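Write out this protein's structure.
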Amino acid sequence: MIYLFISFMAFLNVTLLSILVPGGPIENRDFSGLKGITFWGFNVFLVTLGLGTFWTSYLVLNQLPLAQMMTRIVAGGYIAVYALDLAMIFPKSPTKMSKPLMLLEIVNLCMAVYLMILSTQL
């Protein structure tokens, strides 16, 4: 049962990240200042994190050997993304973070930390 719950938590983390697409209903900051390799590198990282989370969810459900390591890697990725954004380190935007976005990122950060803690149960 714990494997199903951890897999669900991984899936929830990727879902919570996906609703923060720039230009969407919550994320309305301007990232036009990000250029070239910074912009594309960040996007590639986020897409890789999302796809890696789906793969991790599969690993956990099937209790495969890489499940614990991958769960920790994706949880660490989410923690880094939200912590850097909440600390206003990266990505920088001239538009201030809205209160709903800040609240959602705090919730998402807590979910990522919880996923990291759950990874110890694998």
